[in-house]
Structure formats: structure tokens, C-alpha cells
What does this fold into?
Amino acid sequence: MAFHREDPTDYLPLTPVVLHILLALADEERHGYGIMLEIANRTGGSFRPGSGTLYGTLKRLLSSGLAEESGERPAPDLDDSRRRYYRLTKLGRRVLQAELKRLEQVVGVGRMKKLLPRSAST
It folds into this structure.
């Protein structure tokens, strides 16, 4: 079993692929292809990790304790039994929240320096 650091800031900054995978798992459990679809839909297709990158990153997220395989499965007639479903752990959620807070601070600096508008409607 791998040693998991408890301080979420020890994992920061997250790589873009880790950030997008954790965001995809934030609201529901998903299988690998479902994660890929969520990321593609949420980014308008501008970010599409390949399957090797996705599954390699999922493996690292599992070993670091940020994600785990889910024991829950949809009804067999609604899903392929070979699919593995993933979900955030409590630590994974705390790391994601810490990263979003960090990014929010960076965006605040960009706004203060007039590199970004004050709000989305500006």
C-alpha cells in the first residue's frame, strides 16, 4: 500500500489531465470512457486526453489515494461488466478543492493586473 500524504497542498499544482479527471469525478462515478466524454464535453473538445494518458493517470490517482475504484455497478443489462468505475476519495476531493482555490487566486492576480476582465460579463 502506498503512503498517502494528508495535506492536500502537497499534491499541488495539479497537471491539466489530473485536474480534468478529478473534475469529471467530482459529481459522479464514471468509467474511463465516461471520463473522456465528460472532459471533451466540458472543454468543448479542446482537451482530449488519449486513452493511454487517461488510464496511466487513473492508475497514479489510485496509487496516490486521490481516486478509488467503485464497488457500485449499474444493472448488468445497462452496462458492460468489464468497465471499471472510479470515484474521488475524500483526499481527492480536498486536493481538488485546494487546486481550485489556488487557481482562483491566480485568476484574481490576473484580474488585478488587468489581464482579465473583472467578471465573465465584462
